[in-house]
Amino acid sequence: MVTKRILFLVLMLSAGRIYGQQIKPVYPIPSAKQLAWQELEYYGFIHFNMNTFTNVEWGEGKEDPKLFNPTQLNCNQWARIARAAGMKGLILTAKHHDGFSLYPSKYTSHSVVKSPWKNGKGDVVRELADACKRHGLKLGIYLSPWDRFHPDYGTDSYNQVYANMQKELLTQYGPIFEFWYDGANGEGPNGKKQVYDWPLFHSMVTTYQPQAVQFSDSGPDIRWVGNERGYAYETMWSPLNREEIYPGYPKFDDYRQGQENGKHWVAPEVDVSIRPGWYYHPEQDDKVKSPDSLMKIYVASVGRNANLLLNIPVDTRGLIHPNDSASMIGFKQVRDRSLINLIKSSDEITASSRVNGHPISFVRDVNKRSFWAADAKDTMPTITFTPQNSVIVNAIVLQEPISLGQRVKRFSVKLTDVAGHAEEINGQTIGNKRILTFRERKTKSIQVKFLDARGQVLISNFEVLRIISQRNEPLYQ
């Protein structure tokens, strides 16, 4: 018996050495599906619907279904380009505000069933679901609650109509990774607005696709960043008091940065279109955002504790326009060149303190679940990077292990170049990922000081980058 007890104690001590000191979470913390969603970082939005053929952004619900007639629709082309561009999934506008449905729903008469496309036998959602599966992408669904066509809109019965359409989409097309609600709420054909039954809508997703995250201004799982221009904010908290707001909330600007002391984890998503409009307009063929512009958007979204949802307006043929495709692939090439960690194994990284089992070496390994932990008594801990040979950089990356909560409120970065000149820049929150850019320089050392935090400072990843433009020049100079 004594021998067994000794063996047990030895095993426990060994486990302590392997797994280190137990670190307490700072609440709120993300769920497993929120963590999985955050790791996607970048995926696509497909705006393709009746508006594509009427050349407007918002339809009125009076459009003739015969107008919807793509001549070369090819969802495999969408998925192939998205995959080549490095996207992890595609979210499709199954129904926009005009009410026209891209699949043969039993709950509306305004759909592809009445269009000449495939003699009314087509189903765009099915074709995209199959294409995503074929190309290794995740499928997401946008279903606007506003419906300017449906005769029940503005009455209690419409909420069940919408829920029934949700059920169709959630049960007939395989796994869904994200369900996207639009906050727009205007008048329907009877001149009335709808009082949406959000608890009912949310319950449909949790019942039929519990692994899917739900997007709206207030979540429940992920939220709108507060603009459609492609950037998150310098201060970007994932915590939020979601019960205080609702989709379409008129004072959403008060919540766009999240809330440091929010009770719920509702991380931000940045939605932006590759063109000025969300739908295809031929006059915008020469207004596609460049790869360099997209890279700056990436840094200001993924690099500010958000995920990036990039919209691609499919044209009237049913294809991604070559200008959009070229920019998406160019953006992938810029990322491949730029997002390379320049820290070498021979370079030195030190910290002002540590706790057992969480050494500073964990910030440079490939495992984002491991992390450096500063001593709880170290109120302004530091990380110092000293390369063996000077390195040309214009950005650093910091990540927190968000499974234990978002902590850092403020930090500073001291950059010392080879001539001994030093510059200090300030940063705000970190969260899942923070990319802090600065004027390019040949660097002798970089010191990060964590000035304020909601708890013990934990960092899972530290990188230095040189972000390069499409012209092979520094993007930040």
From TrEMBL:
Asked whether the keyword Lyase is assigned, the reply is: no
InterPro entries per record: FUC_metazoa-typ (IPR016286), Galactose-bd-like_sf (IPR008979), GH (IPR017853), Glyco_hydro_29 (IPR000933), Glyco_hydro_29_N (IPR057739)
The record, for SMART domains, names: Alpha_L_fucos (SM00812)
Q: Which Pfam families match?
A: Alpha_L_fucos (PF01120)
Q: Which UniProt keywords apply?
A: Glycosidase, Hydrolase, Signal
User: Could you say which EC number(s) this protein's record lists?
Assistant: 3.2.1.51
**Presence of keyword RNA-binding:** no
Enzyme class, one word?
hydrolase
Q: Where is the Glycoside hydrolase family 29 N-terminal domain?
A: 62-326
* Known function: Alpha-L-fucosidase is responsible for hydrolyzing the alpha-1,6-linked fucose joined to the reducing-end N-acetylglucosamine of the carbohydrate moieties of glycoproteins.
Can you tell me which family this protein belongs to? Belongs to the glycosyl hydrolase 29 family.
Q: Name the PANTHER family on file.
A: ALPHA-L-FUCOSIDASE, ALPHA-L-FUCOSIDASE-RELATED
What is the protein named?
alpha-L-fucosidase
Q: What does the record give as the organism's lineage?
A: Bacteria, Pseudomonadati, Bacteroidota, Cytophagia, Cytophagales
